[in-house]
Write a structure and sequence with these properties.
It contains 5 helices and 5 strands; from the N terminus they run E-E-H-E-E-H-H-E-H-H. It is an alpha+beta fold.
């Protein structure tokens, strides 16, 4: 009856046990891929293991790619990895954790556009926007004006 804004997973139906897995505003579905923040986190963790890197922060947005769509990722990665390699591994892992994503990758969704950046930029951005506190987390999904401001900020630091 109430829209709480959280996504849940049933952990044990018999005991009516649920796990809160994310926020509804942290979904990305521009062409039917239904990518949740839980899917994103799983794919990021798997990517870390495969590439032997540490990814502390990331954000993603949906963008037009000619007559199709793509996800644009900004990933804070230590040590820094080639963006093409990071994109390929992340794409494989996203397909592994989300069937809808895999289906759309063969249709309207193009390969992820990944930019590996210094992880410190995420924290600098939070300071810049006055959100460097215990109550604010870096947004996992960005769009609109917030995305435009973030991209301008990243370009100004490179």
């Amino acid at each position: 009856r109430y829209l709480i804004g959280d996504t849940v997973r049933f952990a044990d139906k018999a005991r009516s046990e649920i796990l809160i897995t994310g926020r509804t505003k942290h979904f990305l579905s521009i062409c039917g891929e239904h990518l949740s923040v839980d899917n994103m986190n799983q794919a990021i963790r798997r990517t870390e293991g495969i590439l032997d890197v540490k990814i502390n922060e990331f954000t993603v947005s949906g963008v037009k790619a000619d007559a199709h769509f793509a996800h644009r990722w900004y990933i804070g990665c230590e040590p820094k990895v080639d963006s093409g390699i990071l994109s390929a591994v992340l794409d494989e892992q996203l397909m592994a954790v989300n069937d809808d994503y895999a289906a759309e990758r063969s249709a309207m969704l193009r390969a992820p556009q990944v930019e590996a950046i210094d992880g410190k930029l995420f924290y600098e951005w939070q300071r810049h926007t006055g959100k460097m506190n215990g109550q604010s987390k870096f947004p996992r999904v960005m769009k609109g004006e917030q995305l435009a401001d973030w991209e301008m900020f990243v370009r100004s630091k490179q």
